[in-house]
Predict the structure.
Amino acid sequence: DIQMTQSPSTLSASVGDRVTITCRASHSISSWLAWYRQKPGKAPKLLIYQASRLESGVLSRFSGSGSGSEFTLTISGLQPDDFGTYYCQQYKSYPWTFGQGTKVEIK
Amino acid sequence: QVQLVESGGGVVQPGRSLRLSCAASGFTFSNYAMHWVRQAPGKGLEWVAVISYDGSNRYFTDSVKGRFTISRDNLKNTLYLQMTSLRPEDTAVYYCARDLEIVTVTVPHYWGQGTLVTVSS
């Protein structure tokens, strides 16, 4: 199985900060990577797929980059509503696997 | 709009079985692959299974292979997860999710609100 490792596990940042979350895959997954955000008690929300394609309706301050085994999610100008836990997920080979999550807190 | 409503969760003893259902509406169910994803209390997301749009292909995560079955009824617009030989580590909120793309299998896109399964004696 492909293992997905996110860093950091937790981050605290101020409104307006640029925030970067890294996701590493144990094997190359080309660009078959998605990013989700989950707020407490809610279902996850798809933000980005195919490493850099923004899901419809997702604000442009979110961006994704990377290919192969290293990927990043960047939030340019953190907003209060961006709190939550962010997960990466590979869909290169079964079983699909998620990273362990990165909890984003607003200072 | 897309709506997914899971049901069938509850408390079950180890070794017993349970069937989850997911009623879909607001889209052409038979055009999309469907996923089950679970989340143990206080833990991260774990992808469980996927079934293709026509039911011809199914894939599972290793820990549930041979114990869980995924199926769908395209006439009833309903997705199922039959869980047998349940273990305490299967305790989780189970989400059903529609795929992003028509016909092909990609990523979970629209999600239900989940149903809690608790495996305990």
